[in-house]
Design goal:
It contains nine helices and ten strands. The radius of gyration is 20 Å and the shape is globular. The chain has 348 residues and is α/β, with parallel strands linked by helices. Helix 6 crosses helix 8. Strands 1, 2, 3, 4, 5, 6, 7, 8, 9 and 10 form a ten-stranded mixed β-sheet that branches.
């Protein structure tokens, strides 16, 4: 997800029925269309699924044609929509019971609703997954720096909780690196999905400090773990994985080290931390996602190691042929983190 610039709160609006297909909505800039990112074999790749010619130290995502160099990179809604079912199936439901217990016992919660801050919300997939799994009225504050994605997140938000209670939403443009406990004042919960690995150590530390200062738990899902299993194994699997992981760490980003760093940061603030695996399990039914993930995965590896381009091209062709034939299965490992920060008034 993109890291939301200076906070610009928007008015709260009722959440709409969702999820809905929002990929045909108007682009953020008039006439702007998606610039496809590169692949090793010249085939099209959904923007955001692989390298997109980013500047040094900037995470490869996607740019819209017609935007200036000063504009932040953007994730394509098409990519986020494609991965949403796999994300939903992967997230650890085992972390929800301890989260529910903590939310039920938050100081001042009796009879009150939840205020949930979704950091780097993208198109809002975390809210669509979590809001219907929690009881009680909920108000979601969606943070992202990209108004293009915030629009999608708002219109496709769920409107009811697990018990039928009302869910509302507001959007805020802001930078997660500047998030403070004051910005989270009154928060019941902070959530994020696929975010930690695109942060630096300092940004993760700031996030942990903000949650601890606000006394609210954090559910941070789907951080890359740096491990991939493909069937059948191939001699280049390990080499591509190593190059991809190095690409993830560019510019001081944490990549596969993110969960370890985050767990240490939250523990250092006195939080109880639980980690659970949340792997994508991709088979023939997820062939479209697997194809795009493969292109992006190998493409990032080649961007990191240009010397392996020719061999990687043959490797990718072989893997894509197996995918098209329904013979390829992939396990892409992620980790979910639940941090139960101490309530600010010392409650349970």
């Amino acid at each position: 997800m993109t890291r939301p610039a200076t906070p610009q709160p928007a008015a709260a609006i009722p959440a709409q029925p969702g999820p809905r297909d929002v990929t045909d909505a108007a682009p953020a800039t008039p006439g702007g269309d998606m610039a496809p990112s590169g692949s090793t074999d010249g085939a099209s790749v959904i923007p955001g699924a692989g390298p997109a010619g980013s500047r040094p130290g900037e995470r490869a995502t996607v740019r819209l044609r017609g935007t200036g160099e000063g504009e932040p990179p953007r994730y394509a809604p098409e990519w986020l929509q494609l991965r949403e079912p796999a994300d939903a199936a992967a997230r650890s439901c085992d972390l929800l019971d301890p989260l529910r217990i903590r939310l039920a016992n938050l100081p001042g919660r009796a009879g009150g609703g939840l205020v949930v801050h979704d950091i780097g919300c993208g198109t809002g997939s975390m809210g669509r997954w979590l809001a219907p799994r929690l009881d009680g009225t909920q108000h979601w504050v969606l943070h992202d720096r990209d108004p293009y994605l915030l629009h999608f997140a708002a219109v496709a938000s769920p409107r009811s909780a697990a018990d039928g209670s009302h869910v509302t939403v507001e959007t805020r443009r802001g930078d997660v690196a500047r998030l403070t406990s004051d910005a989270l004042s009154g928060a019941s919960l902070v959530t994020a999905s696929a975010l930690l690995d695109v942060l630096t150590r300092e940004e993760v530390g700031a996030l942990a400090a903000a949650c601890a200062g606000a006394g609210c738990p954090a559910l941070l899902t789907l951080s890359v773990a740096g491990r991939v299993e493909l069937t059948e194994p191939h001699p280049m699997d390990a080499e591509v994985t190593e190059a991809f992981n190095a690409h993830q760490r560019r510019g001081g980003l944490l990549g596969p080290d993110a969960v370890t760093v985050a767990a240490e940061a939250f523990t250092g603030h006195g939080a109880t931390v639980r980690l659970n695996p949340s792997p994508w399990r991709l088979g023939p039914e997820q062939a479209a996602l697997t194809e795009q993930w493969l292109r992006g995965w190998v493409g990032a590896a080649v961007e990191e190691r240009p010397d392996m381009a020719k061999r990687a091209d043959a490797y990718l062709t072989e893997r894509l042929e197996a995918c098209a034939a329904g013979e390829l299965r992939a396990v892409v490992h992620h980790t979910d983190l639940l941090a139960l920060c101490r309530p600010v008034d010392g409650g349970a």
